[in-house]
Design brief:
Length: about 475
C-alpha cells in the first residue's frame, strides 16, 4: 500500500476537482452521482481543499470507451493549471481501462499533479508505490467491467431466447409492460399494414398519421423512419428479435400475422429494386437550396385563383423534409435568369480555358452496361424464386443487397463517364442552344444546366416584392 500523506502534509492545493460518474442511471434520478458528490465534498472539507469545480458524467460508462464530456473538461482544466488535485469516490469512477489510467498519469506528471484523493484511499501518483496501486485498481476494475458486460450480453441473449421484452421505451401498440396490447394503437397498426399492403407509400402513411393527430410514443410527430420501423418489426407479428434477427416467438401477443409481415418485407424489397426516380417537372428541381436553413427547395404549384397557376420552389417543413418553411421563390423568373447565365457561361472564354487540355476519364461503358443488365437479370431471377416459394423473404433480401450495390456502382460509373463528355461537348454551343432552347425537352434542358451548374442558393427576399431580385440568386458552378 502506498504511504499516504496526512492532511497536514497536503499543502498547496489551490483548487481541487471533484469527479463523479455512474455508468447506468436506470431511474434517471441522478441519485448515484448525488451520493458520490456528497461524500467527495465532505472529504474536501476535511482536507481543507478548496473545490474549484465539480465534473459529473451521469449514465456514462468508463469501460465502453465512449467520450465522457465532463471527464475531458476536467483534463483540460488540469492541463491549464486551473485544478491541481482530484477527488473521486473511488478510483473505478475515474478509470475502468488501464490505458486510460496511463494517459491520466502522464498528464498528471506533466503538470505536477500528485494528489488524487478518494473516499476509500489516497493515491500519490508521484511515487512508484502509489502508481503501482493505481494500476492494480485499474486492472481489477477493467476485469470486473468485462465480466459485467459479458453477464449483461448473456442475460440479453437469454431474455431474447425466452421471448421476453427488452428496452426502456414503451413500444407503440403495447402497454408499459411491453406485453399487453393497447387496443387503440393496435387498431392503428393494423390499418397502417392494410394501407401499405394495398399500395400506400411510407410517406403517405406518415402524413396520414400526423394529420389524424395520432401521437407516437416518444416524439411529437411521426417520421417515415419510425413508420417503416414499426412495419418491418418482428414485434408486431409476435416475434422476438435480437440484433435485428428474428430468433423465435415472443412472450407478447401478435397484432398482425407473420405472413402479413412477410408480405410487407417482400413489398419493400420489390420497391427497392423497381423504384425509379419520378420525372422532374421543373427545370431546377433538386438544384436549389434555401438561403435560411440550407435545405433543398421542392417544386410546388400554388393556385392563387382558378385562372392563375403559379409555379414555385419552396422550403418545406413536412415529414422528412426538415426545412425551415420560411422561403419561397416564383419558379419562372429564376429559371429564366439561370438559363441565360448557363448559356452565357458555355460561350465564355473562361470555361473553355478551364477545360482546355482536360481529358475525360476513359470508361468501358459497354462493359458496365453489360454488367448492369446481368445484375438486373439476377434480381429478376431472385424475384421469381421468391414468387415460387423457393426462397424466403429474408433469403431474398440477403441475396439482393450485394447485387443492388453493384448496380448502384455501375450506374454511377456510367453517369460519371457520360456527364464528363457532355460538359466538353457543350463548350461554345451556348448561342446555338439559346435559339433552340424552347424546342428542347425538359430532360435535355436539365442536362445542359447540370453540366456546368452544381446548385444554387436562394437568399431570403424582401416581403411584398413583386419582382425577382437577382442578388437573391447565388449560383455555385461545377467548373
Amino acid at each position: 500500500m502506498a504511504k499516504t500523506k496526512t492532511p497536514a502534509q497536503r499543502v498547496g492545493v489551490r483548487s481541487a476537482a471533484i469527479y463523479a460518474r455512474i455508468s447506468a442511471d436506470v431511474e434517471g434520478t441522478g441519485l448515484g452521482v448525488a451520493r458520490q458528490l456528497e461524500d467527495c465534498r465532505k472529504l474536501a472539507a476535511d482536507r481543507g481543499w478548496p473545490v474549484g469545480n465539480e465534473y459529473v458524467d451521469n449514465d456514462v460508462s468508463a469501460y465502453s470507451g465512449k467520450p465522457r464530456r465532463e471527464y475531458a473538461r476536467m483534463l483540460d482544466d488540469l492541463k491549464t493549471g486551473a485544478r491541481d488535485a482530484v477527488i473521486v469516490y473511488n478510483l473505478d469512477r475515474l478509470h475502468r481501462r488501464p490505458v486510460e489510467l496511463e494517459e491520466f498519469v502522464t498528464l498528471c506528471e506533466s503538470v505536477g499533479v500528485r494528489d488524487v484523493a478518494t473516499v476509500t484511499a489516497d493515491i500519490d501518483l508521484g511515487n512508484d508505490d502509489g502508481l503501482f496501486m493505481a494500476r492494480i485498481f485499474a486492472a481489477f476494475a477493467a476485469k470486473e467491467s468485462g465480466r459485467k458486460s459479458a453477464r449483461v450480453r448473456r442475460k440479453m441473449l437469454q431474455n431474447a431466447e425466452q421471448g421476453l421484452p427488452h428496452g426502456s421505451a414503451r413500444p407503440f401498440g403495447y402497454e408499459l409492460d411491453k406485453i399487453t396490447i393497447r387496443p387503440d394503437e393496435a387498431k392503428v397498426i393494423r390499418e397502417m399494414v392494410d394501407r401499405y399492403l394495398a399500395g400506400a407509400s411510407i410517406r403517405s402513411l406518415t402524413i396520414w398519421l400526423n394529420d389524424t393527430g395520432i401521437a407516437p410514443v416518444v416524439s411529437k410527430s411521426w417520421q417515415t423512419t419510425a413508420v417503416r420501423q414499426i412495419l418491418i418489426s418482428g414485434r408486431i407479428a409476435g416475434l422476438r428479435e435480437h440484433h435485428r434477427e428474428v430468433i423465435g416467438p415472443a412472450a407478447w401477443p401478435a397484432i398482425i400475422t407473420p405472413t402479413e409481415r412477410d408480405r410487407i418485407l417482400a413489398r419493400m424489397a420489390a420497391r427497392s429494386v423497381t423504384k425509379t426516380r419520378a420525372p422532374r417537372t421543373y427545370l431546377l428541381s433538386g438544384m436549389l437550396r434555401c438561403g435560411r436553413c440550407g435545405n433543398r427547395l421542392f417544386s410546388q404549384a400554388r393556385h392563387n385563383n382558378p385562372t392563375n397557376r403559379v409555379r414555385r420552389y419552396v422550403c418545406l417543413k413536412g415529414p422528412d423534409h426538415g426545412g425551415c418553411g420560411r422561403l419561397t421563390v416564383v419558379a419562372q423568373p429564376v429559371e429564366d435568369l439561370l438559363t441565360d447565365a448557363v448559356l452565357t457561361r458555355l460561350d465564355s472564354p473562361q470555361l473553355a480555358e478551364a477545360l482546355a487540355g482536360k481529358s475525360c476519364v476513359d470508361a468501358d461503358v459497354a462493359a458496365l452496361a453489360a454488367q448492369l443488365e446481368a445484375d438486373q437479370s439476377r434480381l429478376d431471377e431472385l424475384a421469381g424464386l421468391y414468387a415460387e416459394g423457393a426462397v424466403s423473404a429474408r433469403e431474398w433480401i440477403a441475396a439482393r443487397d450485394p447485387i443492388n450495390d453493384r448496380i448502384t456502382q455501375a450506374r454511377r460509373a456510367i453517369a460519371q463517364a457520360t456527364d464528363t463528355s457532355s460538359v466538353v461537348d457543350l463548350v461554345g454551343t451556348g448561342d446555338i442552344l439559346r435559339g433552340e432552347w424552347d424546342d428542347l425537352d425538359i430532360d435535355r434542358q436539365q442536362a445542359v444546366v447540370k453540366s456546368v451548374l452544381d446548385h444554387v442558393v436562394i437568399a431570403p427576399g424582401t416581403p411584398g416584392s413583386r419582382s425577382l431580385d437577382i442578388n437573391r440568386v447565388q449560383p455555385v458552378w461545377r467548373v
